[in-house]
Structures are given as structure tokens and as C-alpha cells.
Amino acid sequence: MRRTTIREFAKASLYNPVLIEGLPGLGMVGKIAVNYMIKQLQARKFAELYSPHFPYHVVVNKRGGIRLLRAEIYYWKSQGRGCDLILITGDSQAQTIDGQYEVASSILDFAEKYEVKRIITIGGYRSEDETPGVFCASNSEDFFKDALRAGAKPTPPGSPIVGLAGLLPGLTAFRGMEGLCILGKTKGYLPDPEAAKSVLEVIVRLLGIPLELKGLDKEIEKAKRLEGNLRGIEATRALRSTKIRKEEERRTSYIS
Amino acid sequence: MRRTTIREFAKASLYNPVLIEGLPGLGMVGKIAVNYMIKQLQARKFAELYSPHFPYHVVVNKRGGIRLLRAEIYYWKSQGRGCDLILITGDSQAQTIDGQYEVASSILDFAEKYEVKRIITIGGYRSEDETPGVFCASNSEDFFKDALRAGAKPTPPGSPIVGLAGLLPGLTAFRGMEGLCILGKTKGYLPDPEAAKSVLEVIVRLLGIPLELKGLDKEIEKAKRLEGNLRGIEATRALRSTKIRKEEERRTSYIS
Amino acid sequence: MRRTTIREFAKASLYNPVLIEGLPGLGMVGKIAVNYMIKQLQARKFAELYSPHFPYHVVVNKRGGIRLLRAEIYYWKSQGRGCDLILITGDSQAQTIDGQYEVASSILDFAEKYEVKRIITIGGYRSEDETPGVFCASNSEDFFKDALRAGAKPTPPGSPIVGLAGLLPGLTAFRGMEGLCILGKTKGYLPDPEAAKSVLEVIVRLLGIPLELKGLDKEIEKAKRLEGNLRGIEATRALRSTKIRKEEERRTSYIS
Amino acid sequence: MRRTTIREFAKASLYNPVLIEGLPGLGMVGKIAVNYMIKQLQARKFAELYSPHFPYHVVVNKRGGIRLLRAEIYYWKSQGRGCDLILITGDSQAQTIDGQYEVASSILDFAEKYEVKRIITIGGYRSEDETPGVFCASNSEDFFKDALRAGAKPTPPGSPIVGLAGLLPGLTAFRGMEGLCILGKTKGYLPDPEAAKSVLEVIVRLLGIPLELKGLDKEIEKAKRLEGNLRGIEATRALRSTKIRKEEERRTSYIS
Question: Facing residues of C6 across strands?
Fold first, then answer.
């Protein structure tokens, strides 16, 4: 494999599908959200994307199986409930600049074949402030207004949107498609299912799809416990280092 | 998008146009100068350049709009006042070595289509000395002499001219064109509209175009205030750290 | 040479050969194992692989001869004892991500020409624990079971297998081949012939080839002596730095 | 320019020419030697090599002229005194791994056109020991023996020869040519015309060309003075830092 390749192992007949992408990134917001959609909607995998710009290792699964890093492409037929979907998630982003552009272009080639008109990418928006929030940005005024109506706020100007979450909608401009980024506020250093849920609430309203979000609550609780524990550890550590500093000050104060 | 691409959305009929490039670089001299020309001359955009060697993110503008990083290409018809112009500015330089050469080559392909004979690039020349000054360098003796007559001085030998500002005129040699770098003296760490103005004074004389430069004076004042403030902050910081050092010396002098 | 190239200087007529790869990596397990097979089985070289992604230097041999870095490809005809083999070892792995994929793809092109159905890669599995052990991972359930029967254990899930040892079996999925990694437990920082021997014991049982392994015992002894010496040096150093620390503590305790 | 390109501006009719390359590297040995040959033999430039893998800047010369980084290709017709020569020197080596292979391959394409059979590259061999010495390494036993007879010694085994000096003779193996590296012993951190002279003494004997070497003696003297001065500066600095250390020891000895 010398270039990015999409391997299709089934043909889907989709009507006016919306493509939604969520790869690893800030707070894993995109990956958690799209994975949840795939599971909850019982979407079906019909293609995989491989790239010589992904990291050069294989992963080992539970039963000693190995596989290359990849992105996975699923579809879901709405049968009248909202719209048909193509869902993309995966293991990794491309590791080089032109690799990022190549992967994005391959996904758009695939989208064109399925006559996709609208593409949504999901990502995280780094913020230390605790209140949840969902931001949107688009190259299409119509799509942008739809997202605002669905509850998202405009992304603050000046923020770069990095990786596939930005490039994919950025490149739609050359394909006659509309692109939309939906970003969940997150501190970003831990997987953040709460931010993913906020994003999905917007998407449910935006697309009218029958997606139940309660299933994420357990993961959210778990993430909060984890964060709490880490905070506890950090607090203890901070306390201890304050003590050490004070002790040192006490000792060194004998010198001067 | 897998290679550097220029997207034209209008056709211009230009007579013997001179191409002027100013992308981000030292002191933003080139970008400020070309942006000012575009605004002041009311030049019209007719093409955009995209490259998989630009950084892999999109920028978000004031109303939640997104776009890829790009260079923008404008034209201006002189109608007898000087000569027709093609003006190029943009967000970023290519991020890899061969990307730099690829972007430069794409611009020259475009220039050839419009039968450009002369190319000017604008950049900064780093110097701590405060007196303004404009340097020029060229692969054509004629073009060089024209620049000297217009008030520029020869660039001191040995200085490398980095990025598009250097590659573009360097590569003209293979296209039967003449290339000229015009470099404004700048400290380089802050946007420097004063250096941009000095460069434009030379260009106005060189090309005989009707460009009013007063409009830059406000920006120059603003930049000076900003620099003054920063200097104030730095001075305070320096003062404070001198105090701390003295205090430390006083304390440690008890030891030895 | 602008792309990875395999130069064949002899034609081999092989029956259903298994390809075994061992390039430099963790503990040099793969390279030691395949080199030993080549020598012991008196395999014959019939091709060499060169790549512009290998480091850009030549090596100088004992008599002032020079050569590019390369991988070497040997064959061995079983004549009824086990199965025919293609053996690959070499100087270096590719130095870039897409170079790794390119080299792997070139090897698979070559394997296809010889109608290879099964590919084994040998590597190290980093572990501080001293007991020997051999792990396997595969994209084929059949091949995996064969390896388990031959004495390997399943690779712990989650471990990435880096470089050609991982990519090569990972990419077999697209060629209708079966791929297997066999990894010898090793601390990894020194060449580890003992780990190589453990791996070869599994391979002998797996393929039924007549490979005598006693020849490795001398190298194993030598490696153990070397490790013992290094440990001695380290212990001395550790002892000395403990002394210094104590001395320092004694001195500084006068201060506070 | 999107790939390495050789621009020829004259045709030379050469008889069985030997190609000699000396680009910047350790102690500038190769560049100094080939530059000296060009000047002394009054060789004529007939081609230039440009590459998108050279650094992306232009250099400015004494009269404000600019040019891209490049390699220059000269020829010299022996007219019975030794053999015809193609001489290559330049500003820089390629900055990427595959760029190094691409530049080397372009030079070999050019060499093939002129039916070159033997290629010599000149470089430095790093050594702290002061006695001069010249090492050789080759992929051809004949060529190697010729170099030994001309006074070179075999390069110590295991040394990598980095960059074009190694790749070019390494790659001759695929072109039916013979390649030879000639390396002058040098400390390597300063331009070393003495090492270049030692190398040229070997080359004069090897090829029987009428090259007077006295012209290098002035440069050698200059280099020795420069080294002497630097050593003086370093000695002073070392002395001073010894004083400071002693002073510090004296002071701190009051503490414990």
C-alpha cells in the first residue's frame, strides 16, 4: 500500500446521505460520539480506509489478532426517521501534513460516489470553563443556521480547527458540498463522553434521527469518577509538594 | 487535494503585468505591503492557491465561517497609470522544503499563463539598527538597476533570503523572467508597517503606480505604541529581575 | 534509485514457500534468528532490496569495500524436510512512515510472485521479567492456532507491533495471504540470542524444518557474560553514586 | 521545479571521463579539493543541478545578485595528460533522506549520458589524530587497488560514509560503473585545505593529471593561523573557567 486506499466490501444504496466523521482528537469527543451512534443505531460497516500516513504499527486485539491502523466507514438507513448516514471513525489521524490532506481527499472521493451533499465533523473545543457548550462552524450559511437552530453556538473567531475535523469541511468547498464542524467544549486531556453527549444532542435535533442518548450516562459517570480520582491524586501531590517547599524554606532560612 | 492547486474564478485580460508577492514572514513586511496595495488600489481577486503543504487546519472567521489556509491572487488594471499588477498574499508559507518549491513553481506556472515578465517579492531584512532602509536583490541586472534608481540599496552579500520571497525570484531564471526581492529593514519580531511603507515607496517609484501611502501612518503609530508598551513591560521586568538578583546576591553573600 | 527496488540475480523454483522476515529491532531478535537460519540451512541469496527510505550512507567492510544499506533475500529448498523458505534480513528499517509502508509493499509484491501464502515476521517483545517466552499474533485464525500448538502464547492485547514486523503481516490481509508475528520476550537493550533461540524453537515445531539450534548456545553465553559485565559496571556506578549521595547528605546536614 | 533537475547549457565531447564529486561535508574537504581542481585546471561549467530537496532560500552575492542553491558541473579535457574529467561541487547536500537518493540518481543519469565508467567522491574522515592520511573505499576491487597504489589506505571497516560521498559510489553498482570514495583525515570542525591537499595528491597519482598543488599552501597557512587563534581563545577560556571553578570550590569549602 503506497497511497491512502478505501476498501469497500459491500455496496449500500443510500438516499441523500449525510456523512459524519469523528476520529481521535481533543477529549476524544468525535470518536466517542460517532462510536456511540454506530452502536446505538446498529449501523453497518461497508468500507475501511488505510493509509501509509497512519503510524507504522499494527494493534493486537484480545485473541492475538492483528490489524493495521485504519478508519472504518459505516452506513445507516433512516427509513424515514431523519436521513441516511455515512459514519466514519478510526484509530488515528494521518501523521504528516500532506498525509492529512490525502486522507481528507480520499474520504471526499468516497463521499462523492455516494452523492453526499452535507458533511459533519465532530471534535473538541478546548476550554477550562466547566459549563458544557457546543460550537459550530461551516462553509455554508444554510448549514450553519441549521446548526444554530439545533442549539450550537458560533465558534469563537480565530480558533484553528486542526486535523480532519477542519480539513474535511474546509475541502468540501471544492466539491460542491456543505461542511459543518460541531465542537464540544472539553478540557481535552481525558476522554470526555459528556462533551460527546452535548454534541449528539445538537446532531439529533439537526438531523431528526432517532438516537437515544441515555446510554452515554454510565460512561459520563465513569469519566467523572476517573477525573475525581485524578484530581484527588493531584491534590495530594500538590499538598505534599507544598509541605516539602515549606520544609525547605524552613531549612534554608537558617542559611541567610 | 493532493497537490498545490490554483483555482481561478475569473479571467483577467492584463497587459504585461508585474507580479508582486507578499506572504507572512519577518515583520510581516510583505503581507502588510501587499494587503495595503490590494485595499488601496481596489484590486480584484481572481484566483486562490491551496496546498497540501500548508498547515492542516482551517481558520474560523467572525461569523462561524471556515476556510482552508490559502494564498489569494488579485489583479489591478493600471489604465495607463504605471503597469498592470498581479498581487499575491496569503495565510502561510509551505511547511516542508519541497512544498516551498512546489508552491513557488505553481505560482510561476500561473505567471507564465499571464505572460508575466517581472516578479517582485517583498520581505523583511532583520536588523537591530533603527534607521529605516530598503534593500534589493535580483537575478537581472536591468531590474536591479531600476530598483536602485527607485531608492533601494543592494542587499548585503551572504544574506540568505528564505521562503517564497527568495525562491520565487530564484526560480524565474528557468522561465525567462526577471525576479526582484525588495526587503524592508525590520527588527522582525512584531508586525512592522513602517518597513512595509518604506518598501512601498520604492515600489511606487519603480512602477509609477498611483498609490497613496498616507493610509499606513495610522497603523505605524499603533505599532509604535504597541512596541513602546512592550518595551515598558520588558523594562519593568528587567528592573524587577535585577532587584531579585541583587537580593539573592545579598542573601548568598552571607554564606561565603 | 527513486523508489524501493528489489534486484533479483537468480531465479528460484520454490514450492509453496513460507516467507520469514527478521530485520533490526528490539533485542535484534528477528535479525539474529533469520541470520542463524540462513547460515545453518545454507540458504542461498537470490535478491536484494534497496530503498531511498533507508539511511543515506554506505557501510565500509573489512577490505575497503562499500555498499548501500539493504535487505537481503535468501531461499532454501526443503526437499521434503518441512517447507521451502524465503528468508529476509537486512541492515535497517525504513526511516519514514510512508517508507515503512513502501518497503513492506515491495516485499509483498515479491512474495506474490513466488505465490507465498504464509508470512512470518520475527521481533522482540519488551519485558523486564527474566523467564523466556514466545508470543504470537496473526490475522489468520488457522495460522494463529498452528503457532499456539508450536508453543507460542497469545500476544497480550493492546501491544503495538512496530515496523516491518507488524506492517508486513498487517498488510497480508489485502493480498489473500496469512501473516504471523512471533515475538521473543527480551529486555531489548542488548542483542538477545536467547530470545532468538526461543523463537526458533517455535518455528522449528511450526514448520517441521531440520534446524539444529545448539549453534546459538555460544552466542547466548557470550551475551550473558556481556550483560553480567555491564551489570557489574552499573552496580559499581550505583554503589559509588550512593556513596556520593550519602557524603553529600552528611555535608549538607551541617547546614540546616 | 518539482524534482531534481540538471540544466545543461553546453554540450561537451569527452573521452572516457572520470567524474569527481566534492560537496560540502566534514572539513569541507571535498568542496575545497574540487573547487581547487576547477580553478587550477580552468575547467568549464556546462551544467547545473537544482533540487527541491536543497534548502529553500536563495543566496545573495556581492552585487545584489541572487541565485538558488545548486550544484555546478564542469568538464576538463585532458588532451593526453591523464583523462578527461567531469567535476561536481555545490552549495549544499539534499536535506531529506529520499532527496539524497534522488540527487545521487540524477547525477548518475547525467554520468550515464557521458558514458562515465568511474566515479570518485571526496570527503572527510573524522579523526582527532594530527598526522595526515588518506583513506579509500570502493565497490570495485580494481579501482580500490589503483587507489592503494596511488597512496591511499583502506578505510577502517565499520565507518559509515554519509551523504552524496557515500551514496554516489554505492549506487554505481546498479549502473555498471565503478565508484571510489577518497577521504582525507580531518578534525572536521573547520575548513581543512590540508586534508584536501592530501586527497588531491592521491588523485594526481591515480589519474596522472597535471595538477600543481602549491596553490593550496597559502590557504593551509591561513587555516592553521585561524585554528591557532581559536585554540588560543579556547585555552584562555579554559584557564578562566578553571579559575572560576577553583574559586567556587574555595568558597563552597567554607560551607561544609
Answer: C49
Contact C120, C136 (CB under 8 A): no
Helix (H, G, I), strand (E, B) or coil at C181: strand
Among B21, B35, B246, B214, residue whose Cα is nearest residue B120? B21
Contacts of C7 in chain D (CB under 8 A): 174
H or E stretch at C22: strand C18-22
Q: Each residue of D222-233: b (16+ CB within 10 Å) or e?
A: ebeeeeeeeeee
**Contact criterion met (CB below 8 Å) for C121 and C33:** no
Look at residue D218 in the predicted model and tell me its pLDDT. Answer: 94
> What ipTM was predicted for this assembly?
0.86
- Give how many domains chain A has, as a whole number: 2
Question: Which is more confidently placed, B253 or A221?
Answer: A221
Q: State whether A70 and A86 are in the same domain.
A: yes
Output the domain CATH number for residue D54: 3.40.50.10900
Mark whether C82 and C145 lie in a shared domain: yes
Q: Residues C162-190: pLDDT tens digits? A: 999 999 999 999 999 999 999 999 998 89
CA atoms of D114 and D67, how far apart (whole Å): 27
Phi and psi torsions of D26, nearest 5° = -45, 120
Cell of A144: 450553519
Is D136 in the same domain as D224? no
Asked if A227 and A206 sit in the same domain, the reply is no
Residues A226 and A207 in one domain: no
Say if CB C21 and CB C116 are below 8 A apart: no
Q: Name the DSSP letter for residue C156.
A: P
Grid cell at residue C130: 527474566
For C97, the closest of A53, A59, A68 (CB atoms) is A53
Of all residues in chain B, the one with the smallest CA distance to D248 is B256
Please state at what angle helix B29-41 crosses helix B193-207, rounded to 10 degrees.
60
Q: Does A195 touch chain B (CB under 8 A)?
A: no
| Cell numbers at A199, concatenated | 454534541
Q: Which residue of C has its CA nearest to D107?
A: C1
Torsion of CA D180, D184, D187, D190, to 10 degrees: -100
Q: Please tell me the predicted confidence (pLDDT) of residue C228.
A: 87
- Residue B235's domain comprises 213-256
Do D194 and D236 share a domain, yes or no?
no
* Sign for the pseudo-dihedral over CA of D168, D161, C51, C69: positive
Cell 508450536 belongs to residue = C150
C198 with C241, same domain: the answer is: no
Closest partner residue to B97 among D50, D56, D255, by Cβ?
A: D56
Which of helix, strand or coil describes residue C167?
helix
pLDDT of residue D150: 98
- Does B247 share its domain with B185? no
What is d(CA C120, CA C164) in angstroms, rounded to the nearest whole number? 11
What residues have CB less than 8 Å from C17, skipping those under 6 apart? C75, C83, C84, C85, C86, C114, C115, C116
C-beta neighbour count of D173 within 10 angstroms: 18
Nearest CA in chain C to A94: C97
Q: Is pLDDT of D15 > 70?
A: yes
Look at residues C177, C184, C17, C45 and name the one whose alpha carbon lies nearest to residue C105: C177
Q: Indicate the pairing of strand B85-90 with strand B153-154.
A: unpaired
Closest by Cα among B105, B88, B82, B114 to B35: B88
Q: What single letter denotes the amino acid at residue B256?
A: S
Query: How much is the pLDDT for B175?
Result: 95
